[in-house]
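Dear colleague,

Thank you for sharing your sequence with our group. We've completed the structure prediction you requested, and as agreed, I am returning the results in plain text so they can be pasted directly into your records. Please verify that the sequence below matches your submission; if there's any discrepancy, let me know and we will rerun it promptly.
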Amino acid sequence: MQNNVKITNIVGEFRQDFAIIANWVKFGSKVLDLGCGDGELLQFLRKSLEVKGYGVEKDDANWLACMKNGSNVIQMDLEDGLSGFEDQSFDTVILSQTLQAMHNTEEIVQEMLRVGREIIVTFPNFGYWRNRIQITGGRMPVSKTLPYQWYDTPNVHLCTINDFDQFCKNHKITILERKVITDGSEVGFMPNLFGNLAMYRLKTS
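Please find the predicted structure tokens below.
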């Protein structure tokens, strides 16, 4: 209840998926945001939940943006792993809309589960109906959640919700919660078809 009150007060300034993530994070907890970009999510969690937030970011411009807005950020490449972080050293580890850009998908998820008591993973759902229509028309999908052209995209491992559910089953990962949204609204009916952003809260089985 405390989470919802604080989030409602400021959620209009941020993306809807940030509010969902915040509802999965405990007040005052220790959070690691991987591929944190310009630190917008960390800033939101600090304001809404007073978390002790840390970020990891490779891009120079984003790293500087984090420093300017007061985020604690380490500049490093996630593909090198998280060996610098101790086991269970964070309450929550977050990978927000970055999974599809990872080369070593299995390794980064396993490392997140090692470092965090719980993890949050979000990614664009390649099974979304608009993506399917574009593929049927002979073109690679371009959308709000997949904004790149085929020749300049950083995405290397696109997947559907069904794919990720099976990934979790195969790797004995417990899905604590799953939410699927489209344009800020939650999707309950046939989410693999009608949802364009998948959000998972996970832990080891």
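Summary note from our side: The chain has one domain: 2-204.

Kind regards,
the structure core
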